[in-house]
Amino acid sequence: MRREVKLLLKKACDALVLAVEHFNRPSDRGRSQAVLILLDHAFEMLLKAGLVHRGGKIRDKQPNLTIGFDQCLRRGLSDGTVKFLDQNQVLALQALNGLRDAAQHHLLDISEQHLYLQAQGGLTLFRDLVKSVFDRELRDELPARVLPLSTTPPLDLAEMFASEVEEVRKLLLPGSRRRIEAAAKMRALAILEASTGGQRSQPDDRQLDKLVDRVQSGAAWDQIFPGVASLELTTRGHGPSLDLRFAKKEGVAMHVVPEGTPGATVVAIKRVDDLAFYNMSSSQLAKHLGLTGPRTVALIRYARVESDADAFKLVVIGKSQFKRYSQKALQTLRDVKLTANMAELSTILDEIFSAESMDHWYKIFNGVHVTFGAVRRPQEVINDPQLRANDIIVPLAGAGGKLTSTVSSPLQVYGVTKVPAKRAPKIGEHNEEVLRQLGFSATEIDGLRVSGTIPKTKEHAV
Fold this sequence. Notes:
Layout: H1 3-24, H2 31-53, H3 69-78, H4 87-105, H5 112-134, H6 157-171, H7 179-196, H8 205-216, H9 221-224, H10 226-229, E1 231-236, E2 243-248, E3 254-256, E4 267-269, H11 274-277, H12 282-289, H13 293-302, E5 312-317, E6 320-325, H14 327-339, H15 342-354, H16 358-367, H17 378-382, H18 385-389, E7 393-395, E8 405-407, H19 431-437, H20 442-450
Antiparallel strand pairs: 1-2, 3-4, 5-6, 7-8
Helix pairs in contact: 1-2, 1-5, 2-3, 2-4, 2-5, 3-4, 4-5, 4-7, 6-7, 7-8, 12-13, 13-15
């Protein structure tokens, strides 16, 4: 065994011992966080030891940096030359890693039974990997007394989740004012659920609120957490020799999530809810990208998003068809947006829109609730019924001829009726009226007119 492998394996075993030691200590202060962080660290060191032992690499382009937890899982599962993990093992490890992330970077209220599952299941998996990869017995690497101990070990995942959901429901009783605590308790369950669906991101407050609302409405735990409902615990032995493993139920499919999928783990329970996976329309993509609808459509074509089955699906519901896009589509478009040739995109847009009439696009955009505005000609603007109905285009009094309407003044004084629009006065039209107000007599005004100081009176339209 190479020296680097020996050192990594020793470091992994040391972290495992510390994790179990913290699990068994009587003080609860920081206990659950320490167990999850140390257990996660133990497995990262073990995975790296396994990769190096099998001839794999744990460094990428930058020689001073080693790969992270997810890449260790992916290589241990998918790299044919070093493969030593199966999908059930990866599922358990990515769930542990998600819990560790929440414990280290945010808030996590994990129950004693759930923590025991992670500790005992982790110890079992650690022992399995030490045997299968290094052909060693874990008992030869650890003190004989290292074992997670629990007075109430759960042996059924369904019972544990049902119990957890019931505890949350009690926190939500009228007058309890403990919704924040309920949300914190739901976080650990939501992380395990998200992990089964191939999602790595931590649940945000809005997602936790939705889960809490479902619990409060009386929904069953397996409806709230369908991914976890597809898992089971397999046990063998009892007491000090107990083996405990996470596994998918018989008949439940699992698939490897494509590398590069944003916010994703390595494996996932095969999705059955397409609308949850392909969770965006083109207008929602446009909003996330900060682009107009037409530009987003052009970018989708430019990036060939609809040729990627993990990014796009045409969902059929009854006689209706809906174009739906996944988070991978959003990430692809964000990347392409930074380097896209906008001149080429404009050409694509021109080809798309010039191929059909405005009436066609009006029906299309209205049918999918896309906000859009047509560029109108001046005469079309004047005759727009909405502008007239909202008193934006109003009749123009006294103009005569073809000039019958104008744009209403944008100023509106509360409680004051707006004066109807009238034509502007012609040059000199109100001379006599103004001069009288200034104190000139009729004779004086006539004199000004005779002398040519002001023009002679002309007929004006009323």
